[in-house]
Write a structure and sequence with these properties.
- The complex is a heterodimer of chains A (486) and B (229).
- Chain A has 486 residues and is of the alpha+beta class.
- Chain A contains 12 helices and 15 strands.
- Chain A has 3 domains: 167 residues; 107 residues, no CATH class; 166 residues, 2-Layer Sandwich (Heat Shock Protein 90), CATH 3.30.565.10.
- In chain A, the strands form 4 sheets. Chain A has a 6-stranded antiparallel sheet. A 5-stranded mixed sheet of chain A has the order 10-12-13-15-14, covered by helices on one side. In chain A, strands 1-2 form a two-stranded antiparallel ribbon.
- In chain A, helix 5 runs antiparallel to helix 6.
- The longest helix of chain A has 49 residues.
- Chain B is an alpha/beta fold and 229 residues long.
- A 5-stranded parallel sheet of chain B has the order 2-1-3-4-5, sandwiched between helices. A 4-stranded antiparallel sheet of chain B has the order 6-7-8-9, with helices on one face. In chain B, strands 10-11 form a two-stranded antiparallel sheet.
- In chain B, helix 2 runs parallel beside helix 3 and helix 6 packs across helix 8.
- At the A-B interface, helix 5, helix 6 and helix 10 of A face helix 1 of B.
Amino acid sequence: MKSYSITRRLIATVLLIELISALCVTSLALVYERHVHFRAFDVLLRGRADSMLGAVQDAEDASDNVMLDGTETTVPPDDIYQVTDASGRLLGRSPNWAGNSVPGQNEQMRVESHEDGQEAFYQTTIHGKTYRVIRMQGLRIVDPGDKGGGIRRYVTVYYGSSMKRVWGAILRTVSFYAISSLLVLACTGILMSWLMNLGLGPLRELATAASKVSVSSWTFLPPEKAKITKELAPLVSALEVLLHSLQRSFEQQRRFVGDAAHELKTGVAVVKSSLQLLSMKERTPLEYQAGLERCLADCGRMEGIVAQMLTLARVEESDAVNPASLQTDVVQCMREVVLEFDTMTQLGQIPILIQGNASLTANVEAEQFKLLCSNLLLNALQHAPPNSAINVEIEQEDSQARIKIRDQGEGIPAESLPHIFERFSRAEPSRSRKTGGTGLGLAICKAVVDKCGGSIEIQSKVARGTTVVVRLPLAHTASYPSMIAQ
Amino acid sequence: MRVLLIEDEVRLAENVASALREGPGFAVDCAEDGVTGASLAENRCYDLIILDLMLPKLDGISVLKRLRTGKDETPVLILTAVGEVTSTISLLNAGADDYLSKPFDLGELLARAKALIRRGKGVAHPTLSAGDLVVSTLEQTVHRAGEAITLSPMEYRILEYLMHRPRVIISKRELLEHLYDYNWEHHSNVIEVHVSNLRKKLGGNEQQSSIETLRGRGYRLLVTRANEE
């Protein structure tokens, strides 16, 4: 993906809009200036034509003709003019008037729209130059002092002037507008990039602060400016929350890895030291045999730890199940687990008594639920005194299945209770070690319960016994039969 | 020599204790948690404390700090598993004398334990000599003027203890405290019998090194002046 900069994009957008408006202003100016200048030009032409009319003199001949006295008029040298009388006789023309044609009959001539009886404007090209020509009907009275008011002579004056100058003036004005617009555009561009730079400061500071966060240093100090920036505040808080939870989970993982390493290394140390102890000196075959058996038992314990760790990892990593898709018969599963403990319960004379609602189905994977039950029951069995009983109660509580497992064991000291679900919980290591515990059983239970959205709590009184209460969400479909029944 | 082993992993503690008893013949007391360990250490009867870091109730580093603030100068060997939070630097700074990371070699543990005990008593070499008496702590043999003397394990341990501190009066009580662990009944006449046997086996005349009994005060290893000069 091509990278792009918000700053550059914003500046480009603004400049583009400015450019478009500058173009609009310039073209409007062009239209307006053209209109104004041409009107002024027309007035000028009319004036010149009038003065040309004034130059028409009595020819002092018999037929009282008129003639154009070119000497009396002062016209710009590059202007063109021609005066004809009513019969079309040429009275006079400027020296640079090309050809002999009369304007108006010229092919190159274009009549403009606003023609009226008295005057008309044309445009014609002579010698490659474009001229605007006025045709004016004029009345010249020869001998106005004579009786009868003199002789009226109608003349037609054509007067043209080059349009180059007008266009020059128009273009000068328009280009002034265009250049000033471009200048403003350039200034805006520079100003914008500076202001944007300034305005994006908090974002840059935030990026710097965020880039300092790494796996080894989790401290994220969002700059004050970013915090009070309305647009950045949500990002800052999102980052803070994210980093906080990430850090917690990282620390949890790190602690777990540390604990696991400790457990495994200790396990290896036990096996290694057992073997080395055995080989320290010559021993009798019986001693060797006993030593090897101890080594085997040590290996077995390590195997147990590894298996439990893998179980925990499996439970935690199993994909989030489709909610309400699982229907595990709580009582049925519990009975199956209890059957597995048959020999143990008979050996220790500790019966497991189940009582409860037989039609509860919980939204939990059957395998994991069995794992949960067997872990809890094993704990209870290991701590229950001989000739006592373990009570399992299963009942519905709101939309949850409540499973209560109660033993009459020695209990758990109050100070250990808060840490009981921690991995490798070392509250009572000597006891758990002797009974073959790894400190992971309850952590696995917690993982199972968390996975399906339930809860687990332990109440315990020393010398009185321990009660574990597990709450699991009921499978949704389970409620239909009861609703129909109602 | 008497060693206090503070380790919560029962099987490991068993193995280390057996090795210390079978190898150098130390008396070993075991504690399974930090609190028990710290209170046992307060008896000040140990020549070495082997301390695990991860302990229930009171962790290893706290035990160590408690020992050192109580002006207990007993050498401490720390057992760690790499990956624990506490670095070796901070361990040594807290007053540990040495450390071993798990899983360790039992032979190395024994060698380090012996070296620490030796150093704790101001001796550098594993072979101790006083006058013409030479004790090799590695081979656990005793020679007088080149001649080997066979001793029972207990006699050897008494001699070794005395050899570490020649010319110093050592009470019977101290010998009892440092040579027997809690599993033994403490009878001072047991020591008397062993010392008397030891003295007989060592033999020697007036000019040679021997064990002197100071009534009511204890024992002293005499080193002959002639040989010293």
